[in-house]
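Predict both folds.
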Amino acid sequence: MISTLSAALLASTIIIPPGGAPGTTPPPDHITIEIVTVNGSGCPLGTSAVAVSPDNKAFTVTYSDFLAQAGAGTKPTDMRKNCQLNLKVNVPQGFTYGIASADYRGFASLMKGAKGTEKANYYFQGMSPTAYTSHVYNGPLSDDWQATDTTEVAAIVYSPCGERRNFNINTELRVDAGTSDPKKTSFMTMDSTDGNIATTYHFAWKTCPGM
């Protein structure tokens, strides 16, 4: 079962909520996004790809190997998996964007006494990273998990107008066997058993001055 889950598809989506509320209406011209660099044990080279929706409301990053596990049959390096994505987001002239919130989902099978942790942050190239936000799950647990990180409107960090700065996303999964039965395995993935989208970053949009 572990090998099947480790090969399961993980999808991360950055999406703009529908409607015309301030900060949510996407630019009229198409956005393109490129993966510049990929680093980390959770997303080895060749296991991730990016696609942008035609309506500018979402882009998906798909992974084929993002699973942390501990216990029977695992190696010490299996307990922590991370992924660092460096993305080039090509936004139409006159607009800039920030991240208002992020929804993370996945599946966890944690034995009694084991613990799983998800944490993430993001930042624009040359700017200070957001603080890591962690979510902890204690065994016994065998179910989907979901976590939401929300940034207050006044605290949203936007990419500087008129500058091209890549966007960096760091995510991590960690499993600690703790006092669980050493003959059993605990694991945590950042996908879900039914294949639904795992991670959603909600855009906040601004029009640059003079536009």
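Second protein follows, with its predicted structure tokens after the sequence.
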Amino acid sequence: MFKIVKKVFVSVVGVIVIGLCFFLSGCAAQQEPQANQTTKYTMYIGLNDKDKYTQLISYEEAEKEVSDIALKYVDGFTELYAKGAYKDDKGILVHENSLVFEFYSVTDQQMKAIMDEVLKKLNQKSILIEKQTVNDEFYEGVKQ
């Protein structure tokens, strides 16, 4: 009789332990939100006029022009001010103020449309575009 009670007790304890393991593993399985894989474009726009080699419009005016153009094609962006330098086709060192715009989850077609308009509006020879596959996530704080 004692052996039967012992077997039942061990079996009940085993079931409880297994149940706790499943319960606790379920708690541990709660994960942080997954980051989304998307394409990030970074657009670098020098502000010197391609013909005059000097900046003809202010940062503020250039920023407004590029922002207005971009928002015709995309829902948003991040912009930064920068300074750059390069040697031109004749080997002349050129320093210039620049605008940097970052875009997420947009298409090549949207970016080309933006760049085509910006090239004309700011009289630029070219715009540097960088394209990367990145993981992004909108963090909204700890959920309670």
